[in-house]
Amino acid sequence: MAESVRGQSEIVLQGYYGISLARAPEYLGYRLNAILNSELATYLMFFHSSILGWERSVIEIRDWLQLPLPPSILEGDVNGVWAEASNQERWLRTHWKRDVDTHEDHHVDRVQRELNDHISRLYELSEQERVLMADTLSYTITPFLGRNVRRATAIPEEPTPEQLHDYAVRLCHQINAILRQGGMQLDATVVVGRHLGLNACRFAWRRGDGGTNVSELNAERMSDILAQMSIDLRATVADRLYVQQDLRVYDDQAFWIIKPSQARLWSETAALNDADAVLREHMDWPANG
Question: Is residue 101 situated within a structural domain?
Answer without folding.
Answer: yes
